[in-house]
């Protein structure tokens, strides 16, 4: 399934709301862990399962773990447009 | 087995032994069938054979006949796949399969029960050793053959009193050890076996109503589905006098729902397995085993102890070993693979050693989570299993069969709320709604690789 940035952002946002994490001040640069959104390892594992269920692939399975919300969005950009990956 | 059948036929030859969808078989007819099979086995000098047949009366007669001649029978699980049959025959070295199928071109020779029957004389008494091979019902990998002996299996049957007019439902496959135990019990109680096909809850419920079933033994999963069928169709509640549950851990909500639905029935829980036989029937309506099962005397058929959280059993009625493997000390202690906790005066089941989910180094038992979810209104069935995850190795995943008409968003919220006070690693991190959950032999499959 090809996902738009807005779709993915909405998926992340509704997951954070359910997990009772701050989602109102979310930007692409917001760190996912510690001082940012504050996901712990289990919550991150849960988010990875949600993303996999929704979009068929999971940015957390790659070699470099996403550090920010923007990293997740870029991962799906790359999935949708492999030619511009890393641009 | 033959001795039970002979005793039943001599007490009441016209009593009905088996009722199937097609016919009714009396004890006289069943005994005559069994002795004709025994004569045929003797005439052909068959020491070992496989059986592949759906008919309860055919299987009963064949087993009873073989228990007289000492022929080692092995029932194959129901399958239409000739390749699978050939592979089982190869694995267990069977040259003959007793079956009505005529399409076994390669592999073992097919011999129909009708052709096996012979008019010759039959022995009065069975030989000293009467082997029987029972295949385990795993879902992954090839089945193993548990080597039993009729003398051990029938050891406990002497304690079964002939009852008056018991009509037992067959809810297990005849190839399963639990199915075999129903056959033994029915013969010893001189009762009637009601055997619908296929052996699913819907057909079971219909058979209970059509044939006035009084006694039924099944897995908790089977009972849950039967209760759901009953709720859905709104038809009459069968007049059961005895309900038995076994084969997997028994959640308290199932016991409560059965007691409420069948107020006149006694409810017992049996702890049993193909390897060690049946033990410890609990009749007090509470989950788990009573702690005093650990204090049985040395001459008990089945004794139990707990080693590092796992239940161990020593059985005098259990198997002798696995086919093709080194013989075991048949009467020695063995681990069961069942993980338990002692809570107050009860031994509670926490799951199988093979089902434990390792979530980032924390061991999570699926059963307590499943029980928690199963008690949420609107959940018909829940399955908890380990879902592989790149970050934590695995997460607790949940599949839910929702009750008809339930709102899945609301149900998801209720399930999360019900699990909110579990340790974080044990909370379901993935919830999916499904039409049905993975099952094998009417038991829920919880292994991550299922």
Summarize the helices and strands and which ones pair or pack.
The complex is a heterodimer of chains A (87) and B (450).
Chain A: H1 5-18, H2 41-55, H3 69-80
Helix pairs in contact in A: 1-2, 1-3
Chain B: H1 2-11, E1 16-20, E2 24-26, H2 27-44, E3 48-52, H3 56-69, E4 72-75, H4 82-91, E5 96-99, E6 109-111, H5 113-116, E7 131-135, E8 145-149, H6 150-153, E9 167-170, H7 177-188, E10 192-195, H8 201-210, E11 215-218, H9 220-233, E12 242-246, H10 252-261, E13 266-273, E14 277-282, E15 289-290, E16 302-307, E17 310-315, E18 321-322, E19 333-343, E20 346-352, E21 357-359, E22 362-364, H11 366-374, E23 379-389, E24 393-402, H12 408-419, E25 430-433, E26 439-440, E27 443-444
Parallel strand pairs in B: 1-10, 3-4, 3-5, 4-7, 5-6, 9-10, 9-11, 11-12, 12-13, 24-25
Antiparallel strand pairs in B: 1-2, 7-8, 8-18, 13-14, 15-20, 16-17, 17-19, 19-20, 21-22, 23-24, 26-27
- Computed Rg of chain B: 22 Å
Helix content of chain B: 25-40%
Low-pLDDT segments of chain B: none
Describe the sheet with the most strands of chain B. 8 strands, mixed
Fraction of residues in H or I helices of chain A:
40-55%
By CATH reckoning, the class of the largest domain in chain B would read Alpha Beta
CATH architecture of the largest domain in chain B: 3-Layer(aba) Sandwich
β-strand number of chain B: 27
Q: What portion of the residues of chain B fall into strands of 2 or more residues?
A: 25-35%
- How far apart the termini of chain A lie comes to 22 Å
Question: What's the helix-strand series of chain A?
Answer: HHH
What is the overall number of helices of chain A?
Answer: 3
The general outline of chain A is: globular
Annotated CATH topology of chain A: Non-ribosomal Peptide Synthetase Peptidyl Carrier Protein, Chain A
State Rg of chain A.
12 Å
- Number of domain units of chain B: 2
Helices and strands of chain A: which structural class?
mainly alpha
Secondary-structure arrangement, i.e. CATH architecture of chain A = Orthogonal Bundle
